[in-house]
Queue: 3 jobs
Job 1
Amino acid sequence: MSEITINIDGKEVKTKEGEFLLNAARANDIFIPAICYLTRCSPTLACRICLVEADGKRVYSCNAKAKDGMNITTKTPAIEAERRAIMEVYDVNHPLQCGVCDQSGECELQNYNLEIGVDAQHYAVKDIKREARDWGHIHYDPGLCIVCERCVTVCKDMIGDNSFKTVPRGGDALEVEYKENMPKDAYAMWNKLNKSLIGLTSGGEMLIVHRVESVPLFVR
Ligand code: FES
């Protein structure tokens, strides 16, 4: 890959032709929010929060490739509104128990809510009962899961087994007014989130039991 120059938020940045914009930004200490992308894995394209403008068009920076002379803007009022709506959507029916949650203080959801300044909730849908499950050494709590699908990607790319997949969640559909009135990416992400949970592929439980002790399941 040849070396090229791109411009991110007015800063000239050297990178390789075809590098993902998110990686080019990270290598140059430029922050772009990104929940589902894992270094060394293929893009998951589940969270949509990494969106930026590249030469005036909206792209997902974890999946868009750098081209020489490209101009990237990581923040515009529309992008910030979209990211905020996405974070609010993640908070819909998420348990409000940060005060007693073991993950509090080391929680990306909490961090991004603070970073993006979410201080109110504009969206709602009736919740359903979501039972926790134990898969070998893994305890899965769908009440806490934001279906970022990192577990799906890391199993596929790092372990080489498709042990996890998204499965239907059930429950009420979103009200139609949301589709008309919400930022587009936030609605699309919520619509998918509201229909999905994580489940095992056929035989996945056996694979997890045997492999989880030797392979880190979550890598960044
Ligand atoms: S980090 Fe790009 S879609 Fe999630």
Job 2
Amino acid sequence: MTPAARHVVAVGSGKGGVGKSTVTLKLAFALRRHGWKVGLLDADLYGPDIPLMLGMKRDQEAKRWDFWRRGDVRFEPLERDGLQVMSVGFLLAERQAVTLAAPLLGAALRQFVEQVDWRALDVLLIDLPPGSADLQQQLFGVVALAGAVVVVGPQDVAHLDGRKFVDFLRGADVRVLGGVENMSGLQCPHCGQRIDVFPPAAANRAIWSDGVPLLGRVPLDPDLDKHAREFDRIAAGLVTRLEAG
Ligand SMILES: Nc1ncnc2c1ncn2[C@@H]1O[C@H](COP(=O)(O)OP(=O)(O)OP(=O)(O)O)[C@@H](O)[C@H]1O
Ligand SMILES: [Mg+2]
């Protein structure tokens, strides 16, 4: 069963640490500004970062994860600034780790999709863990995706790993809705000029040369709130592609 969402979109990358969670969150708020009802599922079961990024306090005491794993419990998504949010982090005490064998990740993910009372959503964004291994491979059996957004860093290696992720998606018949290049240069705070902090990817190695539509580029900046307009552009591109079907 798919949640009450018109579109389910996964956000992933070949690599870790390129900014998937950051981009997913900012994109979620941009889609809210567009007027959509947005859900955000943190599917990084081993390293759920969304609660911390949203400043949502974890329960210091609860061991609700054990309870959750036992049976047919239901959970309300938590609400933050109009976003419906679910993360395994809400079920864990702060220092508690998920101990779950890789083959069970898909079943756990299914619980987060089906046992959470998502209210009517235009889009459910799924923030994937790094890589294209266990959870990603089980994802497709759990939920019918409208497609995926690929986040890459600006470097050669990030695009190289991004391309493998694109191939992985295409091999699973998942539509690649577009790519976001994150940490794409830095605007000098003094002169305003763009600085390429990392050597940029060669054009023929970039994911764009593989037919991935460029949704937008996000600079390296500790204050990403300054770049809301770029995220609005990314959101608009995504909405257009989703509505085009
Ligand atoms: N454009 C940016 N400018 C500055 N800092 C950024 C930017 N994007 C992400 N970061 C920072 O980089 C770090 C990694 O980002 P994030 O956790 O979103 O990556 P991720 O791809 O989700 O990582 P993981 O693979 O571990 O899930 C975080 O500390 C985040 O705040
Ligand atoms: Mg992450």
Job 3
Amino acid sequence: MFTLDAVVPWGRSFDEYRAMFALSNRDLGLTILDCGGGPASFNAEGTRRGSSIVSCDPLYQFDVPQIAGRVSATYEQILEQTRHNEHEFVWTTIRSIAELGDLRLSAMRTFLDDYPAGRLAGRYVRGALPAVPFADRSFDLALSSHLLFLYTEQFDESFHRAAILEMCRVAGEVRVFPLLALGAVPSRHVDPVATAVRRQGFHVTIEQVPYEFQKGGNQMMRIRRAGVDEESGQRDDAR
Ligand SMILES: C[S@@+](CC[C@H](N)C(=O)[O-])C[C@H]1O[C@@H](n2cnc3c(N)ncnc32)[C@H](O)[C@@H]1O
């Protein structure tokens, strides 16, 4: 089974983010926070396309050579783990280990090229869940890709609950992908965390998305303030 001792920097592309979070053109016009954005190219590519995106990660305490070194160290480890556990993945969009390596390296290079200017512009902010350095409701939408639920063994249920509530504090809506842990098994934190977050007055839905790389990993969790209309994003009582 695919396992890792620690959370690793490993970056996905803008197109993957769009699919993982079912981001519409309207969504891409919102102010977006990418929590645990790491070396993904979502911010670099999205900014180039005119979106307003801030990424937040403890990784951003490091400079380009330090991050590049961490990415290189991670690269071999992840590809080796993937090679040994090929059956845990769907090889349709990404067709081989070599293509996976090329796709990830290309996304991470795009991130590294953008990082110095983006950091100066305040688009890459050092910070860690469950306490990120942003005021209440600073963003319309907060995303978490391949951090929460994926690292089920590294982060306990109370961390997940606190992290999601923190994202709800800084954004009007939260989306989390995937709902599987490493090893492509359902995360045991999903149900208790959804229940706890609902108890705090939020509306939680599990929705299918047009992305699946870990087998069975094609669902995201969407969390909104209760009373916000699903379709329009307007409060129910404002219509
Ligand atoms: C596997 S990478 C995923 C990167 C990106 N979201 C993607 O999907 O391509 C996980 C990232 O989570 C970051 N991370 C680890 N602990 C964190 C925390 N407590 N809060 C925010 N990010 C964290 C790591 O530094 C790393 O960059």
